[in-house]
Amino acid sequence: MKARRDVFQAIADPTRRAIIGLLAQQTLTLNTVAENFSMSQPAISKHMRILTECGLVIIVKQGRERHCTASFKALEEVAQWAEQYRRFWTDRLDTLEQLLNEEE
Amino acid sequence: MKARRDVFQAIADPTRRAIIGLLAQQTLTLNTVAENFSMSQPAISKHMRILTECGLVIIVKQGRERHCTASFKALEEVAQWAEQYRRFWTDRLDTLEQLLNEEE
DNA sequence: TATTTGCTAAACCAAACGGTTATACATACT
DNA sequence: AGTATGTATAACCGTTTGGTTTAGCAAATA
């Protein structure tokens, strides 16, 4: 049964975003990932669990090692959510601009 | 002095994303926003504070009312972060696809 | 002036978060 | 067989989160 974590919540943590950045370059074992951070292996294990629960990382067991691969499909939801508002922030007649101009 | 909240953390909460969705359509007073949710007005006040601290909402005092306007510029960071990985998830030879195919 | 309205602030609370250390365990090495 | 390695799990802990209720206050209304 999948916990079906929210991807928005998963990427809220800077360490997890950094893990995704690392894994974007190459698949790494859990320990190798952990070496890139100044925190314990169990801490990284926990982050990795959250990332897998929302589908951002896939773990393949290979012997005693865990090969972690980033899976970016889940980021589509995030990109789309943010992008739907793009017209607002690229529009020069944006309400924000108006407000700022009034106050300056 | 701005608290400079992390926008990723701000949008992690579904209620806050819903507030942004509401304000994308029109500027609303704090109370009007609160009426759209099944929680107390102080709770919405707190969410609104977080949203303003990271620049996602701008509040203009008008008499005793607070007019809340969404400001989407801060979402650019989110969109760009997610989009940098787009090539990975649109690529059919994506590593995820490979992994899934191997397992099925 | 008294009352209502819109909102903030304070105090509180349970649950979740993000980390730790210690332990356990399966796999690989000698 | 014994040891070392890679990882998971459990127990624990302080802080943060997301909500509540109550009280307070300034602005609008009667």
Name the features:
alpha+beta, 3 strands, 2 domains, 3-stranded antiparallel beta sheet, DNA-binding, Arc Repressor Mutant, subunit A, 104 residues
Characterise the protein shown here:
Two copies of one chain form a homodimer. Chain A is of the alpha+beta class and 104 residues long. Helices cover 56% and strands 13% of the residues of chain A. Chain A has helices at residues 7-10, 14-25, 30-35, 41-53, 75-83, 86-90, 95-103, and strands spanning 28-29, 57-62, 65-70. The longest helix of chain A is centred in the middle third of the chain and has 13 residues, at 41-53. The radius of gyration of chain A is 18 Å and the shape is elongated. The mean pLDDT of chain A is 89. The A-B interface holds A 6, 8-9, 11-12, 14, 17, 20, 24, 27, 58, 60, 69-73, 75-76, 78-79, 81-83, 85-86, 88-89, 94-96, 99 and B 6, 8-9, 11-12, 14, 17, 20, 24, 27, 58, 60, 69-73, 75-76, 78-79, 81-83, 85-86, 88-89, 94-96, 99. Chain A binds a DNA duplex (30 and 30 nucleotides) through helix 4.
Give the secondary structure arrangement, pairings included.
The structure is a homodimer of 104-residue chains.
Chain A: H1 7-10, H2 14-25, E1 28-29, H3 30-35, H4 41-53, E2 57-62, E3 65-70, H5 75-83, H6 86-90, H7 95-103
Antiparallel strand pairs in A: 1-3, 2-3
Chain A binds a DNA duplex (30 and 30 nucleotides) through helix 4.
Percent helix range of chain A: 55-70%
Strand content of chain A: 5-15%
Structural domains of chain A: how many: 2
In quaternary terms, these chains amount to homodimer
Secondary-structure-derived class of chain A? alpha+beta
The radius of gyration over CA of chain A amounts to 18 Å
- Per DSSP E runs of 2 or more residues, the count of β-strands of chain A stands at 3
- Average of the residue pLDDT scores of chain A: 89
The arrangement of helices and strands of chain A along the chain is HHEHHEEHHH
What is the number of helical segments of chain A per DSSP (H or I, 4+ residues)? Answer: 7
Query: What distance lies between the first and last C-alpha atoms of chain A, to the nearest angstrom?
Result: 54 Å
Give the spatial strand order of the biggest sheet of chain A: 1-3-2
Largest beta-sheet details of chain A? 3 strands, antiparallel
CATH topology of the largest domain in chain A: Arc Repressor Mutant, subunit A
Low-confidence stretches of chain A: none
What is the H level of CATH, i.e. the homologous superfamily of the largest domain in chain A?
Winged helix-like DNA-binding domain superfamily/Winged helix DNA-binding domain
Tell me, what is the CATH class of the largest domain in chain A? Mainly Alpha
Which second-level CATH architecture of the largest domain in chain A applies?
Answer: Orthogonal Bundle
User: Largest interface, counted with CB-CB under 8 A?
Assistant: A-B, 32 and 32 residues
